[in-house]
Amino acid sequence: MRLPLVSILSPIAGGTFDSDTDRTKSTYLRTEEGSVQLSGYTVIDLETTGLFPKKHDRVVEIAMVFVSDTGEVQGSWSTLINPGRDVGPTHIHGITAREVLRAPTFQQLAPLIIRSIAGRTVVAHNARFDLGFLDYEFDRSQAGTVPPSPGLCTMQWSSHFLSGASRKLRDCCAAAGVSHHDEHSALGDATATSGLLRYYLQRAETPLPWSRLSTSSRSHRWPVVPDPLPEVSFVQRSSSPPRPDAWLDRISSHLPRNDDPLVDAYLDVLEKAMLDRYLSAHEEAELIAVATSLGLARDQLSALHASYLDSLAAAALEDGVVTAAEREELDAVAAMLGLPRRLVDIALRRTTPRLSGPTSSGSLALQHGDRVVFTGTLSTPRQDWEARAAGAGLICGGVTRDTRVVVAADPDSQSGKAAKARSYNIPVVNETTFSRMLDAMNGVS
Q1: Domain carrying residue 376
Q2: What is the pLDDT of residue 29?
Q3: In whole angstroms, what is the distance from residue 430 CA to residue 84 CA?
């Protein structure tokens, strides 16, 4: 279904305000499909020049999706924003300096943003991040308001409604069966988040577990905005953002969730900061400030970072082998976190899988009837590997979703089979690892 975009020439209209409390009693949205009363949720997503508004990072794109109390999408709007500075990591969000030249400023959009939020429950994936940015942008624009905090966070609630999903939006969507297109675009991410919200609403008990938060958000005090709203032209991005292919972005999908939602909120910002494999001095200082704002003491961070490195090492070893490239990435992460390189060795020794049989906890083990695939030029002839595999009761063939493992001369192989396996989250291992797995099946130590 194509989402109806709000026309800025016939904007959200009709807000009536209580002169005593300045709270919205009723708000309406005019879309291409007519007017609907807003009393549900406003899902927000932002693309930004960086991660730290205190260091003058700004919003470069905003999207809002309007969702009813039962989870139905009622409308949406999105636009690029002229940040008045460089646009930041174009290689991640896909927005260029040329595109924002004619885009409205946040100050010009502030009345529309307020009207889109007032009287509704505000939702975001890592709400502390997005609403924190809105807080600073409202302050800069002198709009006289801040958004309700912390808002309904779909990242926080994912551990309640989803099994085994990482904190990342795309992984939560995959676990919930929600489509996620145009990752790292504001409208793409907000639309995906609205799908997560619908999934939660369909499975939540009554009364909703976030009822108190919704009441606080919907009764939040907002200033009166002009009616009709000032006219301003939306500017849309010209292309979809590139999909980041950073090792950390891929491997962090396999990390366990933290029981503390504040720690998860911090780790989400940390992972975003490390996507370019570099932490500047001001980023390090701001990460400490983020941790402090979340109530995480500075002396806790070293232990938290060491635990995070352990989790990365375990995730890297899920396929039974750590390649030279993966080891290089682990060393780089350790350096960025201010941890000595020897901790990588310790983490890998601590998490090295013991392939002792099909029930080995935490290891990649084979069982009779598993499907295996061979790809590339192997040191042992492929027919010999296939004969050994068949003799162990394994099935050889092409890559399907139920394939247990793909064997390649180099686990970083870019062959079609290896690429397809990665798209299905199927491990790609080398011949030595596969031989150990076969020995484990046969009880050979």
Answers
A1: 371-441
A2: 45
A3: 50
